[in-house]
Amino acid sequence: MGNLQQQLQSTGDFLSISREHPWSLPETFQFEITHSASGNKSIAKVLETGIIVFEPLTQTSTQDIVLSCGVHGNETAPIEICAELVQKLILGELPLAQRVLFIFGNPASMNVAQRFVEENMNRLFSGGHSIDQGQGVGLINKERERALLLENTVRAFFQQGTELGNSRERMHYDLHTAIRGAKYDKFAVYPFLHGKPRKPEQLQFLLACGVNTILLSNSPTTTFSYFSSNEFAADAFTVELGKVRPFGENDMSQFEQVKTTLTRLVSGEDLQLKAFDEADFHIFTVAQVINRHHENFTLNFADDAPNFTDFTKGYVLAIDGENEIKAQQDGEAIIFPNAKVAIGQRALLTVVPSALNSEI
Ligand SMILES: O=C(O)CCC(=O)N[C@@H](CCC(=O)O)C(=O)O
Ligand SMILES: [Zn+2]
Protein backbone atom coordinates (compact mmCIF):
# COMPACT_ATOMS: atom_id res chain seq x y z
CA MET A 1 0.00 0.00 0.00
CA GLY A 2 1.42 3.40 -1.01
CA ASN A 3 1.78 6.32 1.41
CA LEU A 4 -1.05 8.27 -0.14
CA GLN A 5 -3.48 5.39 0.19
CA GLN A 6 -2.44 4.88 3.81
CA GLN A 7 -2.93 8.57 4.52
CA LEU A 8 -6.35 8.59 2.82
CA GLN A 9 -7.65 5.47 4.51
CA SER A 10 -6.62 6.71 7.94
CA THR A 11 -7.86 10.34 7.63
CA GLY A 12 -10.52 10.19 4.89
CA ASP A 13 -9.30 13.65 3.92
CA PHE A 14 -9.38 13.45 0.12
CA LEU A 15 -9.65 17.23 -0.22
CA SER A 16 -6.29 17.87 1.49
CA ILE A 17 -4.57 15.19 -0.60
CA SER A 18 -6.04 16.73 -3.74
CA ARG A 19 -4.93 20.22 -2.77
CA GLU A 20 -1.44 18.93 -1.96
CA HIS A 21 -1.27 17.53 -5.52
CA PRO A 22 -3.28 20.16 -7.39
CA TRP A 23 -2.95 18.86 -10.95
CA SER A 24 -2.03 15.20 -10.67
CA LEU A 25 -1.54 12.47 -8.06
CA PRO A 26 1.70 10.46 -7.99
CA GLU A 27 -0.36 7.25 -7.73
CA THR A 28 -3.92 6.05 -8.28
CA PHE A 29 -5.37 3.23 -6.22
CA GLN A 30 -8.53 1.60 -4.96
CA PHE A 31 -9.59 0.02 -1.70
CA GLU A 32 -12.51 -1.68 -0.03
CA ILE A 33 -14.65 -0.01 2.61
CA THR A 34 -16.77 -1.77 5.22
CA HIS A 35 -19.66 0.42 6.29
CA SER A 36 -19.93 0.25 10.05
CA ALA A 37 -23.71 0.39 10.54
CA SER A 38 -24.67 -2.30 8.00
CA GLY A 39 -21.47 -4.27 7.43
CA ASN A 40 -22.01 -3.70 3.68
CA LYS A 41 -18.95 -3.33 1.53
CA SER A 42 -18.09 -0.92 -1.22
CA ILE A 43 -15.08 0.02 -3.29
CA ALA A 44 -13.45 3.45 -3.53
CA LYS A 45 -11.44 4.22 -6.66
CA VAL A 46 -9.12 7.22 -6.63
CA LEU A 47 -8.92 8.06 -10.31
CA GLU A 48 -6.94 11.33 -10.15
CA THR A 49 -6.52 14.31 -7.92
CA GLY A 50 -9.97 15.51 -6.87
CA ILE A 51 -11.69 12.55 -8.53
CA ILE A 52 -13.00 9.61 -6.50
CA VAL A 53 -15.71 7.03 -7.24
CA PHE A 54 -17.62 4.94 -4.70
CA GLU A 55 -19.44 1.78 -5.79
CA PRO A 56 -21.46 -0.58 -3.59
CA LEU A 57 -20.15 -4.16 -3.69
CA THR A 58 -22.75 -5.99 -1.63
CA GLN A 59 -25.86 -4.14 -2.83
CA THR A 60 -27.38 -3.53 -6.26
CA SER A 61 -27.36 0.17 -7.14
CA THR A 62 -29.90 1.90 -9.39
CA GLN A 63 -28.43 5.38 -9.69
CA ASP A 64 -25.23 6.89 -11.08
CA ILE A 65 -24.74 10.19 -9.25
CA VAL A 66 -22.12 12.84 -10.01
CA LEU A 67 -21.51 15.41 -7.27
CA SER A 68 -19.08 18.07 -8.39
CA CYS A 69 -17.80 21.13 -6.56
CA GLY A 70 -14.88 23.52 -6.84
CA VAL A 71 -15.08 23.90 -10.60
CA HIS A 72 -14.53 27.45 -9.36
CA GLY A 73 -11.86 27.19 -6.68
CA ASN A 74 -13.03 30.01 -4.41
CA GLU A 75 -16.58 28.65 -4.06
CA THR A 76 -15.78 26.85 -0.86
CA ALA A 77 -19.04 25.86 0.84
CA PRO A 78 -19.86 23.08 -1.65
CA ILE A 79 -16.24 21.89 -1.44
CA GLU A 80 -16.53 21.59 2.34
CA ILE A 81 -19.87 19.77 2.02
CA CYS A 82 -18.50 17.23 -0.49
CA ALA A 83 -15.25 16.78 1.45
CA GLU A 84 -17.24 15.80 4.54
CA LEU A 85 -19.40 13.32 2.60
CA VAL A 86 -16.31 11.76 1.01
CA GLN A 87 -14.58 11.51 4.38
CA LYS A 88 -17.56 9.80 6.01
CA LEU A 89 -17.78 7.32 3.14
CA ILE A 90 -14.06 6.48 3.26
CA LEU A 91 -14.18 5.98 7.01
CA GLY A 92 -17.25 3.75 6.64
CA GLU A 93 -19.35 6.11 8.78
CA LEU A 94 -22.00 6.51 6.08
CA PRO A 95 -23.83 3.75 4.18
CA LEU A 96 -23.47 3.73 0.39
CA ALA A 97 -26.41 2.62 -1.75
CA GLN A 98 -25.59 4.15 -5.15
CA ARG A 99 -22.62 4.65 -7.45
CA VAL A 100 -21.27 8.13 -6.73
CA LEU A 101 -18.57 10.07 -8.54
CA PHE A 102 -17.22 13.01 -6.52
CA ILE A 103 -15.30 15.67 -8.42
CA PHE A 104 -13.33 18.49 -6.80
CA GLY A 105 -12.99 20.43 -10.01
CA ASN A 106 -10.04 22.77 -9.74
CA PRO A 107 -7.79 22.11 -6.71
CA ALA A 108 -5.09 24.50 -8.00
CA SER A 109 -7.53 27.41 -8.00
CA MET A 110 -8.62 26.46 -4.45
CA ASN A 111 -4.99 26.87 -3.39
CA VAL A 112 -4.84 30.44 -4.72
CA ALA A 113 -8.39 31.21 -3.50
CA GLN A 114 -9.44 32.26 -6.98
CA ARG A 115 -12.28 31.38 -9.35
CA PHE A 116 -9.70 29.93 -11.74
CA VAL A 117 -5.96 29.98 -12.43
CA GLU A 118 -5.79 30.78 -16.15
CA GLU A 119 -9.24 30.22 -17.56
CA ASN A 120 -12.81 29.78 -16.27
CA MET A 121 -13.26 26.00 -16.36
CA ASN A 122 -17.05 26.24 -16.46
CA ARG A 123 -16.77 27.57 -20.02
CA LEU A 124 -14.64 24.67 -21.21
CA PHE A 125 -17.07 21.74 -21.41
CA SER A 126 -18.83 20.21 -24.42
CA GLY A 127 -15.58 20.61 -26.29
CA GLY A 128 -14.98 24.24 -25.16
CA HIS A 129 -11.52 23.09 -24.04
CA SER A 130 -10.51 22.56 -27.68
CA ILE A 131 -11.94 25.74 -29.19
CA ASP A 132 -10.20 29.09 -29.44
CA GLN A 133 -12.53 31.34 -27.45
CA GLY A 134 -10.70 34.45 -28.59
CA GLN A 135 -9.12 35.29 -25.25
CA GLY A 136 -5.53 34.93 -26.33
CA VAL A 137 -4.88 32.15 -23.83
CA GLY A 138 -4.20 29.53 -26.50
CA LEU A 139 -5.63 26.06 -26.83
CA ILE A 140 -3.49 24.41 -24.19
CA ASN A 141 -3.45 25.11 -20.48
CA LYS A 142 -3.97 23.02 -17.37
CA GLU A 143 -7.62 23.99 -16.94
CA ARG A 144 -8.37 22.91 -20.50
CA GLU A 145 -6.62 19.58 -19.87
CA ARG A 146 -8.57 19.18 -16.66
CA ALA A 147 -11.92 19.95 -18.34
CA LEU A 148 -11.17 17.25 -20.94
CA LEU A 149 -10.26 14.80 -18.15
CA LEU A 150 -13.50 15.61 -16.31
CA GLU A 151 -15.51 15.07 -19.50
CA ASN A 152 -13.87 11.69 -20.07
CA THR A 153 -14.32 10.70 -16.42
CA VAL A 154 -18.03 11.52 -16.41
CA ARG A 155 -18.53 9.74 -19.74
CA ALA A 156 -16.80 6.57 -18.46
CA PHE A 157 -18.70 6.70 -15.16
CA PHE A 158 -22.11 6.82 -16.84
CA GLN A 159 -21.07 4.20 -19.41
CA GLN A 160 -19.92 1.79 -16.68
CA GLY A 161 -23.30 2.25 -14.98
CA THR A 162 -25.06 1.28 -18.19
CA GLU A 163 -22.90 -1.85 -18.40
CA LEU A 164 -24.42 -3.06 -15.12
CA GLY A 165 -27.45 -3.85 -17.25
CA ASN A 166 -30.30 -2.81 -14.94
CA SER A 167 -32.58 0.18 -15.29
CA ARG A 168 -30.71 3.20 -13.93
CA GLU A 169 -31.03 6.92 -13.31
CA ARG A 170 -28.27 9.44 -14.00
CA MET A 171 -27.83 12.65 -12.05
CA HIS A 172 -25.24 15.39 -11.88
CA TYR A 173 -25.41 18.22 -9.35
CA ASP A 174 -22.62 20.73 -9.99
CA LEU A 175 -22.40 22.74 -6.78
CA HIS A 176 -21.33 26.39 -6.78
CA THR A 177 -21.73 29.62 -4.83
CA ALA A 178 -22.40 32.99 -6.41
CA ILE A 179 -20.06 35.99 -6.36
CA ARG A 180 -22.88 38.32 -5.27
CA GLY A 181 -25.57 37.96 -2.69
CA ALA A 182 -29.01 37.13 -4.06
CA LYS A 183 -32.63 37.95 -3.28
CA TYR A 184 -33.13 34.18 -3.42
CA ASP A 185 -30.10 32.81 -1.66
CA LYS A 186 -30.05 29.32 -3.19
CA PHE A 187 -30.95 28.75 -6.80
CA ALA A 188 -30.28 26.32 -9.60
CA VAL A 189 -29.76 26.61 -13.33
CA TYR A 190 -31.76 23.96 -15.24
CA PRO A 191 -29.77 23.46 -18.46
CA PHE A 192 -31.41 23.68 -21.89
CA LEU A 193 -33.17 20.38 -22.64
CA HIS A 194 -33.76 20.95 -26.35
CA GLY A 195 -37.53 20.70 -25.93
CA LYS A 196 -37.65 17.70 -23.57
CA PRO A 197 -39.95 18.20 -20.58
CA ARG A 198 -38.39 19.45 -17.35
CA LYS A 199 -38.92 17.15 -14.38
CA PRO A 200 -40.98 18.26 -11.36
CA GLU A 201 -39.41 15.47 -9.27
CA GLN A 202 -36.00 17.06 -9.74
CA LEU A 203 -37.41 20.31 -8.37
CA GLN A 204 -38.76 18.38 -5.37
CA PHE A 205 -35.22 17.12 -4.76
CA LEU A 206 -33.77 20.63 -5.08
CA LEU A 207 -36.41 21.97 -2.68
CA ALA A 208 -35.33 19.36 -0.14
CA CYS A 209 -31.81 20.80 -0.58
CA GLY A 210 -33.17 24.26 0.31
CA VAL A 211 -33.20 25.45 -3.31
CA ASN A 212 -36.53 27.01 -4.24
CA THR A 213 -35.52 29.17 -7.21
CA ILE A 214 -34.91 27.75 -10.67
CA LEU A 215 -33.53 29.45 -13.77
CA LEU A 216 -34.50 27.77 -17.01
CA SER A 217 -31.77 28.03 -19.58
CA ASN A 218 -32.93 28.06 -23.18
CA SER A 219 -29.72 27.65 -25.13
CA PRO A 220 -26.68 25.35 -25.21
CA THR A 221 -23.76 26.41 -22.99
CA THR A 222 -20.25 25.21 -22.21
CA THR A 223 -21.01 24.54 -18.54
CA PHE A 224 -20.42 21.23 -16.77
CA SER A 225 -24.11 20.68 -16.01
CA TYR A 226 -25.18 21.24 -19.62
CA PHE A 227 -22.51 18.73 -20.71
CA SER A 228 -23.96 15.94 -18.52
CA SER A 229 -27.52 16.86 -19.37
CA ASN A 230 -26.98 17.08 -23.09
CA GLU A 231 -24.54 14.22 -23.69
CA PHE A 232 -25.77 11.65 -21.18
CA ALA A 233 -29.39 12.68 -20.54
CA ALA A 234 -28.53 13.06 -16.87
CA ASP A 235 -30.77 15.13 -14.64
CA ALA A 236 -28.15 17.84 -14.24
CA PHE A 237 -28.12 21.26 -12.59
CA THR A 238 -25.74 24.03 -11.65
CA VAL A 239 -26.70 24.61 -8.03
CA GLU A 240 -25.82 27.93 -6.38
CA LEU A 241 -25.72 27.50 -2.61
CA GLY A 242 -25.29 31.09 -1.41
CA LYS A 243 -22.39 33.50 -1.60
CA VAL A 244 -18.65 32.94 -2.12
CA ARG A 245 -16.65 32.90 1.13
CA PRO A 246 -13.11 31.73 1.98
CA PHE A 247 -12.50 28.26 3.41
CA GLY A 248 -13.54 28.09 7.07
CA GLU A 249 -15.74 31.21 6.85
CA ASN A 250 -18.96 29.52 5.72
CA ASP A 251 -21.84 29.41 8.16
CA MET A 252 -22.42 25.67 7.80
CA SER A 253 -25.84 25.97 9.46
CA GLN A 254 -26.99 27.45 6.13
CA PHE A 255 -26.28 24.13 4.43
CA GLU A 256 -28.01 21.64 6.75
CA GLN A 257 -30.76 20.87 4.24
CA VAL A 258 -28.42 20.24 1.34
CA LYS A 259 -26.09 18.14 3.50
CA THR A 260 -28.95 16.04 4.85
CA THR A 261 -30.51 15.52 1.42
CA LEU A 262 -27.23 14.61 -0.31
CA THR A 263 -26.43 12.23 2.54
CA ARG A 264 -29.79 10.55 2.12
CA LEU A 265 -29.28 10.36 -1.63
CA VAL A 266 -25.92 8.58 -1.54
CA SER A 267 -26.89 6.31 1.34
CA GLY A 268 -30.25 5.32 -0.14
CA GLU A 269 -32.43 6.69 2.65
CA ASP A 270 -35.91 8.06 1.98
CA LEU A 271 -35.42 11.60 0.64
CA GLN A 272 -38.61 12.78 2.38
CA LEU A 273 -39.62 14.90 -0.60
CA LYS A 274 -42.59 17.23 -0.37
CA ALA A 275 -45.31 16.67 -3.01
CA PHE A 276 -44.66 18.85 -6.05
CA ASP A 277 -46.39 22.23 -5.99
CA GLU A 278 -45.13 24.80 -8.49
CA ALA A 279 -46.19 27.53 -6.05
CA ASP A 280 -43.29 26.46 -3.79
CA PHE A 281 -40.82 27.78 -6.39
CA HIS A 282 -39.68 30.98 -8.00
CA ILE A 283 -39.19 29.94 -11.59
CA PHE A 284 -37.48 32.19 -14.11
CA THR A 285 -36.50 31.78 -17.71
CA VAL A 286 -33.47 33.39 -19.28
CA ALA A 287 -34.41 36.52 -21.24
CA GLN A 288 -30.98 37.75 -22.39
CA VAL A 289 -27.48 36.30 -22.38
CA ILE A 290 -25.22 39.35 -22.50
CA ASN A 291 -21.64 38.71 -23.55
CA ARG A 292 -18.83 41.22 -23.19
CA HIS A 293 -17.52 42.25 -26.62
CA HIS A 294 -15.40 45.31 -25.82
CA GLU A 295 -12.58 46.31 -23.49
CA ASN A 296 -14.71 49.16 -22.15
CA PHE A 297 -17.62 47.26 -20.67
CA THR A 298 -19.50 48.67 -17.69
CA LEU A 299 -22.49 47.58 -15.67
CA ASN A 300 -24.99 50.30 -14.89
CA PHE A 301 -26.01 49.25 -11.39
CA ALA A 302 -24.37 49.05 -7.98
CA ASP A 303 -21.51 46.61 -7.48
CA ASP A 304 -23.43 45.08 -4.61
CA ALA A 305 -26.82 44.88 -6.37
CA PRO A 306 -27.90 41.33 -5.54
CA ASN A 307 -28.77 38.67 -8.09
CA PHE A 308 -32.48 38.90 -9.03
CA THR A 309 -32.58 42.72 -8.76
CA ASP A 310 -35.14 43.65 -11.41
CA PHE A 311 -35.42 46.64 -13.74
CA THR A 312 -38.06 48.31 -15.85
CA LYS A 313 -38.19 48.01 -19.64
CA GLY A 314 -35.67 50.34 -21.28
CA TYR A 315 -33.32 50.59 -18.29
CA VAL A 316 -29.70 50.53 -19.52
CA LEU A 317 -28.17 47.52 -17.80
CA ALA A 318 -24.72 47.64 -19.37
CA ILE A 319 -22.62 49.61 -21.82
CA ASP A 320 -20.42 47.51 -24.11
CA GLY A 321 -18.19 49.79 -26.17
CA GLU A 322 -20.72 52.10 -27.84
CA ASN A 323 -23.70 49.79 -27.30
CA GLU A 324 -26.29 50.28 -24.62
CA ILE A 325 -27.84 47.02 -23.47
CA LYS A 326 -31.31 47.55 -22.09
CA ALA A 327 -33.91 45.60 -20.18
CA GLN A 328 -36.37 44.46 -22.83
CA GLN A 329 -39.26 43.81 -20.43
CA ASP A 330 -40.53 45.18 -17.15
CA GLY A 331 -39.29 43.04 -14.28
CA GLU A 332 -36.21 41.72 -16.08
CA ALA A 333 -33.77 40.67 -13.36
CA ILE A 334 -29.98 40.39 -13.38
CA ILE A 335 -28.05 37.18 -12.66
CA PHE A 336 -24.28 36.61 -12.42
CA PRO A 337 -23.24 40.16 -13.46
CA ASN A 338 -19.48 40.35 -13.86
CA ALA A 339 -17.91 43.15 -15.90
CA LYS A 340 -14.47 41.58 -15.54
CA VAL A 341 -15.09 38.44 -17.59
CA ALA A 342 -12.81 37.82 -20.56
CA ILE A 343 -13.94 39.42 -23.80
CA GLY A 344 -16.36 37.10 -25.58
CA GLN A 345 -17.69 35.60 -22.37
CA ARG A 346 -20.99 35.96 -20.56
CA ALA A 347 -21.05 39.15 -18.48
CA LEU A 348 -24.59 38.71 -17.19
CA LEU A 349 -27.87 36.96 -17.71
CA THR A 350 -31.28 38.46 -17.37
CA VAL A 351 -34.31 36.42 -16.35
CA VAL A 352 -38.07 36.89 -16.18
CA PRO A 353 -40.69 34.92 -14.24
CA SER A 354 -41.92 31.79 -15.97
CA ALA A 355 -43.57 28.39 -15.48
CA LEU A 356 -41.66 25.10 -15.41
CA ASN A 357 -42.83 23.79 -18.77
CA SER A 358 -44.69 26.77 -20.19
CA GLU A 359 -43.33 26.50 -23.73
CA ILE A 360 -43.85 22.76 -24.15
O1 LIG B 1 -21.90 34.63 -9.28
C1 LIG B 1 -21.40 34.53 -10.38
O2 LIG B 1 -21.20 35.53 -11.09
C2 LIG B 1 -20.99 33.20 -10.94
C3 LIG B 1 -21.42 32.00 -10.16
C4 LIG B 1 -21.18 30.80 -11.05
O3 LIG B 1 -20.07 30.29 -11.08
N1 LIG B 1 -22.19 30.43 -11.81
C5 LIG B 1 -22.04 29.46 -12.85
C6 LIG B 1 -23.38 29.23 -13.53
C7 LIG B 1 -23.30 28.16 -14.59
C8 LIG B 1 -24.60 27.99 -15.39
O4 LIG B 1 -25.04 28.98 -15.98
O5 LIG B 1 -25.13 26.87 -15.42
C9 LIG B 1 -21.02 29.96 -13.85
O6 LIG B 1 -21.01 31.16 -14.14
O7 LIG B 1 -20.26 29.15 -14.35
ZN1 LIG C 1 -19.20 28.86 -9.82
UniProtKB/TrEMBL annotation:
Chain ranges of the Succinylglutamate desuccinylase/Aspartoacylase catalytic domain: 62-265
Q: Which residues bind Zn(2+)?
A: H72, E75, H176
Q: How is the cofactor bound?
A: Binds 1 zinc ion per subunit.
Q: Which SUPFAM superfamilies match?
A: Zn-dependent exopeptidases
Tell me the InterPro entries matching this sequence. Answer: AspA/AstE_fam (IPR050178), AstE_AspA_cat (IPR055438), Aste_AspA_hybrid_dom (IPR007036), SuccinylGlu_desuccinylase (IPR016681)
Annotated GO biological processes are: L-arginine catabolic process to L-glutamate; L-arginine catabolic process to succinate
Q: What's its top-level EC category?
A: hydrolase
Q: From the UniProt record, which GO molecular function terms apply?
A: hydrolase activity, acting on ester bonds; succinylglutamate desuccinylase activity; zinc ion binding
Which domain of life does the UniProt lineage start with? Bacteria
What's its catalytic activity?
N-succinyl-L-glutamate + H2O = L-glutamate + succinate
Q: Which Enzyme Commission number(s) are on file for it? A: 3.5.1.96
Please list the residue ranges annotated as the AstE/AspA barrel-sandwich hybrid domain: 280-353
- Which residues does UniProt mark as catalytic? E240
Q: Which UniProt keywords apply?
A: Arginine metabolism, Hydrolase, Metal-binding, Zinc
HAMAP family annotated for this entry? Arg_catab_AstE
Role noted for this protein? Transforms N(2)-succinylglutamate into succinate and glutamate.
Q: PANTHER family of this UniProt entry? A: ASPARTOACYLASE (PTHR15162), SUCCINYLGLUTAMATE DESUCCINYLASE (PTHR15162:SF7)
Protein name stated in the entry: Succinylglutamate desuccinylase
What gene name is listed for this protein? astE
